[in-house]
């Protein structure tokens, strides 16, 4: 029976499935695999598992071989090429006065192609830049404009929590984030406090959003006036850990903490 293994090419990149072939692999092993752009250097991120018949429509590409010392040397050589290409491209951008922010260069494993990643406010005419790069580097050149969140993922950094930012550590794709998520969790709406290094809303706002929605489902909304067994008042706070809410009584302004079972439901008036 065939076995599939999950291979990752970047620290927090997407995991791709490959056919193990005859190789016995473990987590953390470095391998050379067949990709659409030729051979690639990857790391085993998901342990091999049997592939059941009929579970995949397209045939899987295979693990070509386990990485050797020669392959590690080639990867190190590629990194030096990437650094040289990055520095040279920055000089060309300054010479051509292009409004673009180059932040990363990646080489294919066989060093036949270099991809330049950049951000920009609008479209950039980089045709002359590509000519200069091809003439100097002598390989195929691809210019790829990406969003600001992708830049943060590729460059990495430390978040306001003191840990490595999520997108570069373990997130494989970005989920939609809205200001409503911050409101639902009672967070400050100050943009400087709920924005990440990319300047967009922090991805971690999505982590507990659904939990807060469930915890608040049985509690009256903030600002709502309710009738309770202790009297009528306005909801001013929630205590989600204990499933209770605080109201300020209309007669005297006293604050009382109650549970949802203390809410008095108003009887519907009959039309008769």
Shape: elongated
Number of domains: 4
| Strands side by side in the biggest sheet | 2-1-4-3-5
Percentage of helical residues? 25-40%
Describe the biggest sheet? 5 strands, antiparallel
Strand elements, count: 12
Distance between the termini: 74 Å
User: Could you report the average pLDDT, rounded to the nearest whole number?
Assistant: 88
Give your account of this protein's structure.
By secondary structure, the protein is an alpha+beta fold. It folds into four domains: 3-67, no CATH class; 73-146, 2-Layer Sandwich (GMP Synthetase, Chain A, domain 3), CATH 3.30.300; 151-211, no CATH class; 225-262. It is 25% helix and 28% strand. The protein has helices at residues 69-96, 127-137, 148-155, 166-169, 179-184, 191-194, 209-216, and strands at 3-8, 15-19, 30-35, 38-50, 63-66, 101-107, 113-119, 140-145, 225-228, 231-239, 244-249, 255-258. A five-stranded antiparallel β-sheet has the order 2-1-4-3-5, with no helix packed on it. The chain has a four-stranded antiparallel β-sheet with strand order 9-10-11-12, with no helix packed on it.
Which secondary structure elements does this structure contain, and how are they paired or packed?
Layout: E1 3-8, E2 15-19, E3 30-35, E4 38-50, E5 63-66, H1 69-96, E6 101-107, E7 113-119, H2 127-137, E8 140-145, H3 148-155, H4 166-169, H5 179-184, H6 191-194, H7 209-216, E9 225-228, E10 231-239, E11 244-249, E12 255-258
Helix pairs in contact: 1-2
